[in-house]
Design goal:
The chain is α/β, with parallel strands linked by helices. It contains 19 helices and 27 strands. It has three domains: 248 residues, Aminohydrolase, N-terminal nucleophile (Ntn) domain (Glutamine Phosphoribosylpyrophosphate, subunit 1, domain 1, 4-Layer Sandwich); 187 residues, Glucose-6-phosphate isomerase like protein, domain 1 (Rossmann fold, 3-Layer(aba) Sandwich), CATH 3.40.50.10490; 145 residues, Rossmann fold (3-Layer(aba) Sandwich), CATH 3.40.50.10490. The chain binds fructose -6-phosphate (F6R).
Length: 621
């Protein structure tokens, strides 16, 4: 949520910053802006509401040569305070125009700070929470104990701020220095040769360096072209940071011939699942990435909570069926945003599995913190190395999908489902609820899935055709049972967020308790059928549900296993998926729903990578 970048080095800073914003635009696209230090005491700022393309057009119009310099910063916004207008676009400046700031997060105490500034006669030029920070730094620099000291002025102000934020400051008097700070929202340093970067995401600088440093909580970093110095908000240098090497390359952050990242990411799913499984079954045992929980601690668990948001939450709903089945532990799946507000019963013997692609979702992070305060054990399933959620967890399993740039989760969702199943097997193994040979068999079934996903992906053209045909439909319903129910929820979410179409997912058994009233002539209803072999009873019940809706005029689109002839008479459109063990079926049945949503969105003329009002990672509660 909001992408920020800072650069000090030897290149044209404008080019570096604009390219970084392009790679981080998935974090927010309400506005974009840049500030360049010209090295002669000048600070040039340009900002524009809307997509980065608007800013670029503006830069072309005013002339890019006005922004010459080798240090600068940039911002791509997801609006929280203040409408997405030019006036609210970052960077914000103080009255002299010599200090600038960009910000990700929310400064929660901005109202009293704003009142204080106004009282002192400062005129604020935007409706944002951010702007107070730049005026406060300018004032601390102008007079008082930190006068003339840019870094100390920034630290003094940071100590006064409440909330979650990453802030980056530039000062025209200090053309070779950028100061940045983080609390809860992400900030990484890229360490180059004679150049330094700071950004919300390594994608911003992957082109130039793979050496990165993840900052910890409440830290300040000062970059110059040859150094980065990290301290806490008091200036104490004795603080933990986490250097790491980025293990994916530039190609992963490019579209690779596809019109949209999302389409590329759908195609990448077999690899994403295979890479997520790789290395986790060693000498007949499931192993996690960072296991700071002993087998004894896993044996002592008597209850599991899964906490997550959005698609990650749906992956948790799928996991519940397998974890309960394999471990006989009760599993509750909770929306992270609700979890801590209802006083859940947690103690040392509770395992909280926190699922987050980004590892920085504020609701999930706060749920993790709440769980830890209550002494629960926390296991993170995450796609971003070293992000805050895995850092605060007791154990980690990474989904290894590489960067997911399309705002709608696809490959990360499939990888999460695979990773969650590994967590279930790890628990079953530690607790002895499955014999080692059973764990091995389940793992082998899982390891066979990437090939089936790949096979399925070659059969998606009829799904695209159907999507084009149904793209004018006012609504679509999705039905499923058992693990097909969360798949129905995910299918509906994808269609809502990408195609802005009214879509609802239901447990098919609930239909007759209300939702069946929605069925009318021609309404498309997508039904996820369970395996006729693995779930024969459910299969026949769902067949009855399909008959009921067909009798009321619904247009039925049925996702069923190959060879399931019983559904054919009731399917106006049949989408076949390879057969698989029941608990693994969501790894397949989700795929046509992703393709369907993307194609409907494209037919309706929408940008599937950047759905309106959304951002890739949600770092505010
Ligand atoms: C939907 C989607 C979102 C995310 C949710 C959680 O396609 O991508 O619903 O799943 O915002 O994000 P993470 O997994 O980063 O915590």
């Amino acid at each position: 949520m909001c992408g920020i970048v800072g650069y000090v080095g030897h290149r044209n800073a404008l080019d570096v910053v604009v390219e970084a914003l392009r790679r981080m635009e998935y974090r927010g696209y309400d506005s974009a802006g840049i500030a360049i230090l010209d090295g002669r005491g000048g600070l040039a700022v340009e900002r524009k509401a809307g997509r980065l393309a608007n800013l670029e057009a503006e830069l072309d119009e005013v002339g890019r040569d006005r922004f010459a310099g080798t240090a600068g910063m940039g911002h791509t916004r997801w609006a929280t305070h203040g409408r997405p207008t030019d006036r609210n676009a970052h960077p914000h400046r103080d009255a002299s125009g010599r200090v600038a700031v960009v910000h990700n997060g929310i400064i929660e105490n901005f109202a009293p700070l704003r009142a204080e500034l106004e009282h002192a006669g400062v005129e604020l030029a935007s409706d944002t929470d951010t702007e107070v920070a730049v005026h406060l730094v300018a004032r601390a620099y102008a007079e008082g104990p930190t006068a003339g000291d840019f870094v100390e002025s920034a630290r003094t102000v940071l100590r006064r701020l409440e909330g979650a934020f990453t802030l980056v400051f530039a000062h025209a008097d200090h053309p070779g220095t950028i100061v940045a700070a983080r609390r809860s929202t992400p900030l990484v340093v890229g360490v180059g040769d004679g150049e330094m970067f700071i950004a919300s995401d390594v994608a911003a600088f992957i082109e130039f360096t793979r050496d990165a440093v993840e900052l910890g909580q409440d830290q300040v970093v000062v970059i110059t072209k040859d150094s980065y110095v990290v301290t806490d908000f008091d200036g104490n240098p004795d603080v933990p940071t986490q250097p790491f090497t980025i293990d994916w390359d530039l190609a992963a952050a490019e579209k690779g011939g596809h019109d949209y990242f999302m389409l590329k990411e759908i195609e990448e799913q077999p690899g994403a699942v295979a890479d997520t499984l790789r290395g986790h079954f060693v000498d007949g045992r499931i192993v996690l990435d960072e296991q700071r929980l002993s087998d004894q601690e896993l044996r002592d668990i008597d209850k599991v909570f899964v906490v997550a948001c959005g698609s990650s939450y749906h992956s948790g709903l799928v996991a519940k069926y397998a974890i309960e089945h394999w471990t006989r532990l009760p599993v509750e799946v909770e929306l992270a945003s609700e979890f801590r507000y209802r006083d859940p019963v947690l103690d040392r013997s509770t395992l909280v599995v926190a699922i987050s692609q980004s590892g920085e979702t504020a609701d999930t992070l706060e749920a993790v913190r709440h769980a830890k305060e209550q002494k629960a054990r926390v296991l993170a399933v995450c796609n971003t190395n070293g992000a805050q959620i895995p850092r605060e967890a007791d154990a980690v399993l990474y989904t290894r999908t590489g960067p997911e740039i399309g705002v709608a989760s696809t490959k990360a969702f499939l990888a999460q489902m695979a990773a969650n199943l590994l967590v279930g097997l790890a628990l079953a193994q530690a607790r002895g609820t499955k014999y080692p040979d059973e764990v091995a068999r389940e793992y082998e079934d899982l390891a066979a899935m990437p090939e089936r996903i790949a096979q399925l992906l070659t059969t998606m053209e009829p799904v695209r055709e159907l999507a084009r045909e149904l793209s004018a439909s006012p609504a679509v319903l999705f039905l499923g049972r058992h693990v097909g129910y969360p798949v129905a929820l995910e299918g509906a979410l994808k269609l809502k967020e990408l195609a802005y179409m009214h879509a609802e997912g239901f447990a098919a058994g609930e239909l007759k308790h209300g939702p069946i009233a929605l069925i009318e002539d021609g309404l498309p209803v997508i039904v996820v059928m369970p395996s006729p072999k693995g779930r024969a009873v459910l299969h026949s019940k769902l067949l009855s549900n399909i008959r009921e809706i067909q009798a009321r005029g619904a247009r039925t689109v049925v996702i069923a296993e190959e060879g399931d002839e019983t559904v054919r008479p009731f399917a106006d459109h049949l989408i076949e998926i390879p057969s698989s063990p029941s608990l693994l079926q969501p790894l397949l049945s989700t795929v046509p729903l992703q393709v369907f949503a993307a194609e409907v969105a494209q037919s309706r003329g929408y940008d599937v990578d950047k759905p309106r009002n959304l951002a890739k990672s949600v770092t505010v509660e």
